[in-house]
Amino acid sequence: MTEVLGNQIQGLNIVLGALQAATGETCKNCIGLEGAKTKVGKMAKKLGMDLEAAAICCEKTKADLQSRIDSLSKAAEELKIAEECECQKTAGNCKIGEGCFVNAAVDLIKLVH
Amino acid sequence: MAKVRCGRILSEDIYIEEGDTTTLYFINNLRAYQVVLAALKALDQDICHDGCSLPSTVNKAIKRLGKLKNDLETSDVAAKEKESLLSKIDTFLADANRLPQDTSQTCRKSAGECIIGAGCFATGALNLINVVTEPKA
């Protein structure tokens, strides 16, 4: 269980790194980033709940993992998005094609099996 | 021709003339590298720092940025826009050059430390570039 949680924490850290870069982008005004912020916030919360329910004997390991999850939660909360968001493709400001940087960044978590 | 906003790179709003797909191609790539490099920087705080996949990915990103720079230099993008985009590529290259590039270290999976499964965060991060599908180069 410690391994699974550790892997998910690693993954979420990278997702958040990518999302932080997206906040300095057109994505700051995008509903996609707004949704991703909610999603990663929930992921961090779920990680916290999973950790609480996990049978981890070593208190120090548990405390370390909790502290990393808390940092991720804080980073998710601090993602700066505009007050009013709309899809930037619909608004005509994002012309990258069918894909979406934000969704692709969140999908990096799927690399954890 | 009317100018339209098509991205924000390094905190600067970028505008192009509507229908200028050549300039848009370079802008979209730079938008992607902005996200890719941030993901790679996050990875550098991870065990990947001591592995070989992150350096290998960083080297690939540097090579591709170099190619993008050459392509931009020889393109017919307007001089002012070209200069601005070239300076952004240089910033990204400087960022990438600060990341690990020594591929002689052992892959953290082989070392038994990375147990995320078949995937690889470094490769996945670079693949964010593939999100850019328009305009076709």
Sequence-ordered SSE layout with sheet pairings:
The complex is a heterodimer of chains A (113) and B (137).
Chain A: H1 2-23, H2 31-53, H3 59-77, H4 101-107
Chain B: E1 3-9, E2 12-17, H1 21-44, H2 53-73, H3 79-97, H4 121-126
Antiparallel strand pairs in B: 1-2
Structure description:
The complex is a heterodimer of chains A (113) and B (137). Chain A has helices at residues 2-23, 31-53, 59-77, 101-107. With 113 residues, chain A is an all-alpha fold. Chain A has one domain. In chain A, helix 1 (2-23) runs antiparallel to helix 2 (31-53), helix 1 (2-23) packs parallel to helix 3 (59-77) and helix 1 packs antiparallel against helix 4. Chain A is elongated, with a radius of gyration of 16 Å. Chain A starts with a helix and ends in a 6-residue tail after the last helix. By secondary structure, chain B is mostly helical. Chain B has one domain (3-131). Chain B has 4 helices and 2 strands. Chain B has helices spanning 21-44, 53-73, 79-97, 121-126; strands spanning 3-9, 12-17. A two-stranded antiparallel ribbon of chain B has the order 1-2. Chain B is elongated, with a radius of gyration of 17 Å. Classes of the chains: A mainly alpha (113), B mainly alpha (137). The interface between A and B is large, with 34 and 41 residues.
Q: Tell me the fraction of residues in β-strands of chain B, as a range.
A: 5-15%
Tell me which oligomeric state these chains represent. heterodimer
The largest sheet of chain B is: 2 strands, antiparallel
- The count of helical stretches of chain B stands at 4
Number of domains of chain B: 1
Number of helices of chain A: 4
Identify low-pLDDT runs of chain A: none
Q: Output the helix-strand order of chain A.
A: HHHH
Broad structural category of chain A: mainly alpha
Mean pLDDT rating of chain A: 92
Overall 3D form of chain A: elongated
| Helix-strand string of chain B | EEHHHH
**Major β-sheet of chain A, in short?**
none
> What number of structural domains do the residues of chain A give?
1
